[in-house]
């Protein structure tokens, strides 16, 4: 893993599993659907391969992997019905609010780049509206027409960077991600990336990350030329 940290001016955040503790809710929703069709186990290996993937690609792969007797579109409908019920209770991950408010206080521009669709983002941030208004903009991969290819393609991060008013170069952007697919996307975009994965993610899947942390609470902004925390 790279140990050289370069100065940045802008930050780009993934959402699920990084800012919001939604991955366990996705696991619950997926397992509920599998239970309707024989009760196969939604394993962490399968989950890991799908983290960061746009919605319909994920639906197609799950139907294929588990040989479900429904179409990807039918799977999507089932998942959205369940998600709309449980995602409203999404909680912030440790260190997320502190970091976002710190960057905002010091006028460091930051945005959201999530594979979730705009409709699902609104449900997930129901109890965090004020905090998410601090973002300069949001790119929602599953519903944004400009995002032609989902993670691990770099599209979403390049588009996110291009929508800042001053249009920073990729090298000036620092991405925060939890998923290997997201790390690959950021690396392909030419950006440094701080990975904050599930502890079960193998260390070798962090090879392209600039830094791997256990939690956002461990992040030190000054390593990347950003203002240090006040305390």
Describe the structure.
- There is one protein chain.
- The model has no long low-confidence stretch (mean pLDDT 95).
- Helix 1 packs across helix 4 and helix 3 crosses helix 4.
- This protein has two domains: 147 residues, HAD superfamily/HAD-like (Rossmann fold, 3-Layer(aba) Sandwich), CATH 3.40.50; 66 residues, Putative phosphatase, domain 2 (DNA polymerase, domain 1), CATH 1.10.150.
- The protein has nine helices and six strands, in the order E-H-H-H-H-H-E-H-H-E-H-E-H-E-E.
- Strands 3-2-1-4-5-6 form a six-stranded parallel β-sheet, sandwiched between helices.
Annotation keywords:
single chain; about 230 residues; alpha/beta; Rossmann fold; DNA polymerase, domain 1; six-stranded parallel beta sheet; 9 helices; 6 strands; about 35% helix; phosphatase activity
In short:
By secondary structure, the chain is α/β, with parallel strands linked by helices. The chain has nine helices and six strands.
